[in-house]
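quick q for whoever's on today - can somebody do inverse folding on this one?? i tried earlier but teh output was garbage lol. tokens:
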């Protein structure tokens, strides 16, 4: 009501030099911030970059709090300047980088997401030298404190114990599946006695490859977690092993899902192809959950990035992300182009999966 009657009242400040927009960000009043940033209120654009006595704009405060919702609203308005410095010479991008933990953080954490989006928008950094920036970063996170290494070791211990259970389970399941093959084995009086009866079909060979990749990935992940939990290695080496083991564990989960779908399809397709296809279509729900946070995070920033970077950039980036995810999911499906004879007893041909990649 004040703004409608007297637009200049929007620039009123308190003793700390804050406008109502600063206060709204600090009090997490999203609707108020959305009102100020609405394209229907162009008359309020002049207050979006106002700075308080510490030189902070509303965007500085949103980034400092790691509030993704608030940041997204401000970032989506082109009138908001992304490169203003506060009294400490820090831009929003600097503050976002300060907020990222030095270790044991996920790329989808709010602080990391905000920093990545600011980099994509080419937001400027402050005037601080890199060595000064690194020194301040160490001080902010207490990297030189006496108890820092103790905290890191405690987090490493908890994370290693939790994830090593999953890698061991996957390795155990895949080891058993390698010898309990779908379709069983040929009789001893056969020309190739003791060999798998379904050998020669594409789905069977793809299953074997996916199964082997899942077993190898989970085994490497288990070794990595063992090394990460070993006290004889330095903290730096243990962290490196932990990061590598986590990546291999993710790949083994993808291969496990594909191996399950291929095994079901190989067994059921000759007698119940519709059921086999239905189960194969349901199986990627594991993959959707695995990448769910990633896509939700990008969808939240899709519209603001579209405003900042344009439709062509947003389209090309979206296509690139989609193709990258498809590759990460389907790389275990390596198409075997060698002339392998098809099993004679199969009267129904096995449908090749769509997402097959030649190697």
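ok took a stab at it. sequence:
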């Amino acid at each position: 009501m004040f703004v409608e009657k007297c637009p200049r009242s929007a620039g009123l400040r308190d003793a700390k030099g804050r406008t109502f927009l600063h206060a709204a960000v600090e009090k997490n009043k999203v609707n108020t911030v959305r009102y100020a940033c609405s394209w229907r209120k162009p008359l309020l654009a002049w207050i979006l970059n106002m700075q308080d006595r510490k030189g902070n704009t509303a965007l500085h405060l949103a980034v400092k709090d790691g509030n993704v919702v608030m940041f997204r609203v401000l970032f989506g308005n082109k009138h908001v300047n992304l490169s203003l410095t506060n009294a400490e010479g820090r831009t929003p991008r600097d503050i976002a980088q300060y907020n990222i933990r030095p270790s044991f953080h996920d790329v989808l954490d709010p602080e990391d997401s905000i920093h990545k989006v600011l980099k994509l928008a080419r937001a400027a950094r402050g005037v601080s030298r890199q060595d000064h920036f690194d020194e301040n970063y160490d001080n902010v996170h207490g990297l030189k404190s006496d108890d820092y290494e103790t905290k890191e070791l405690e987090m490493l211990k908890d994370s290693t114990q939790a994830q090593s259970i999953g890698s061991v389970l996957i390795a155990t399941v895949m080891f058993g599946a390698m010898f309990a093959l779908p379709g069983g084995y040929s009789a001893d009086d056969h020309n190739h006695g003791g060999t798998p009866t379904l050998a020669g079909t594409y789905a069977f060979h793809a299953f074997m490859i996916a199964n082997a990749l899942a077993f190898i990935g989970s085994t490497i992940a288990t070794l990595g977690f063992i090394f990460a939990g070993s006290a004889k290695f330095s903290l730096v080496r243990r962290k490196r092993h932990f990061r590598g083991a986590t990546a291999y564990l993710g790949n083994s989960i993808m291969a496990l899902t594909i191996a399950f779908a291929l095994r079901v399809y190989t067994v059921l397709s000759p007698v119940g192809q519709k059921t086999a296809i239905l189960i194969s279509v349901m199986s990627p729900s594991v993959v959707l959950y695995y990448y769910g946070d990633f896509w939700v995070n990008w969808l939240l920033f899709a519209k603001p990035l579209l405003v900042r970077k344009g439709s062509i950039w947003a389209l090309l980036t979206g296509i690139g992300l989609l193709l990258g995810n498809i590759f990460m999911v389907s790389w275990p499906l390596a198409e075997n182009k060698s002339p392998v004879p098809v099993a004679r007893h199969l009267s129904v041909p096995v449908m090749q999966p769509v997402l097959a990649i030649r190697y």
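fwiw Residues 334-359 have pLDDT under 50 and may be disordered. also The two ends are 66 Å apart (CA to CA). so keep that in mind when u check it
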